[in-house]
Amino acid sequence: MNKTLWGTDKFGNDISTYEISGKGGMKVKLMDFGATVLEIHVPDKNGNDVDVTLGYEKLEDYFTNDPYFGCCVVPSANRIGGAKFTLNGKEYSLDVNDGENNLHSGFDSICHKMWKVTEEQDNTITFSYNKKDMELKFPGNVSILVTYTVTDDNELRIDYVANSDEDTIFNPTNHSYFNLGGHDSGDAMNQLVWINSKKFTETDSHSIPNGKLVDVAGTPMDFTEEKPLADEIDSDYDQLKWAGGYDHNFALDIVEGELSLAASMRDVNTGIKMEVLTDLPGMQLYAGNYIPDKELIGKSGKPYVRRGGVAFESQYFPNAINIPEFSQPVLKAGIEKKTTTIYRFSAN
Ligand code: BGC
To answer: Which pTM does this prediction carry?
Structure first.
């Protein structure tokens, strides 16, 4: 474990970075501010080290971090329509921070809070955060643990554990953006993506699922055969035009609760392949359409480009809390919830 002081937050708390690594050559750097992933280094086909995740050079940029680079998004990833939901007969109004809707829980994000390190070893680190009742306008005192582990098989394994004293929403995701050609190698659209899904959640023009599951077959949303993102991302297809490209939740062909292969992405130049495994029912494929072109200064001091990284966000379906037919992202009082997502890397 390699701990380094990086700076302080606006309250004067020390922010440190931590490096964890495995015997397969993989190394991940994180920080306690937001329990954020900063760097993911994996070997390419020639054994060279490539950092495959987007991030900032300067700590200060993480204090706003509009794209949510590397964030651990809790308690509620993605969108809740109308920024409202009803649970046990009680209506809750959330922050309206994305059009009329709630995105990634609201304004005072837990991505911008200090987490405590509760356990650390060479290959693993656990961060803990205690969300207070009605913090971010979600009910319940919720204790949240997130453990990041680098396995000897070049996996970044993310385990979440949550406990609440009241029924509430718990829909965590990791918001790392991946570019398997290297974080600063330009747009990631030539990378090949496969998704274990035959249906996606149709949305309105503001990315809110309307409850309909639509067959991907015959649409640009079909990733049942691996294809480059560039192939159809700019198709004349309303779902894509409204979102500016892929920014959709896929209903995974897996059994909820069973850790299974959900998706993969591959870069032909570096030979790096990433496989995503999860036990959650959905995955948002977000192609970085809203990364402003050549405005954000990335880790190497160079500006990132639009679509320079792609997020694979495992989660309950967005807006599920308002759609009873969807699996519910509800954490019951007194019943522990555990969920796991893995990003596995190989190269050839
Ligand atoms: C959403 C995008 C959003 C991005 C950054 C993603 O999870 O799907 O629409 O722009 O997060 O907030």
So the answer is: 0.98
Mutate to test the pocket of ligand 1, among 171, 201, 247, 312 (most ligand atoms within 8 A of CB): 247
The length of the chain, given as a count of residues? 348
Kindly report the protein residue whose alpha carbon is nearest to atom 9 of ligand 1: 247
- How many structural domains compose the chain? 1
Whichever domain contains 38, its CATH number is 2.70.98.10
Structural tokens at position 326: 């969807």
Q: Whose CA is nearest to atom 8 of ligand 1?
A: 247
Q: What is the pLDDT of residue 123?
A: 98
What atom in ligand 1 is closest to the CA of residue 290? 10
- C-alpha distances out from residue 330 to 105, 167, 283, 325, Å: 14, 7, 17, 14
The pick from 54, 64, 68 for probing ligand 1's pocket by mutation, whose C-beta has the most ligand atoms within 8 angstroms, reads 68
Q: Are 104 and 197 in contact (CB under 8 A)?
A: no
> What is the per-residue pLDDT across 290-304, written as a single tens digit (0 to 9) for each?
999 999 999 999 999
Say how far apart CA 295 and CA 290 lie, in whole Å: 11
Q: Could you list the residue range(s) of the whole structural domain that residue 290 is in?
A: 2-347
User: Which residues in the chain land under pLDDT 70?
Assistant: 1
CA distances from 300 to 184, 185, 226, 287, 297 (A): 7, 11, 30, 21, 8
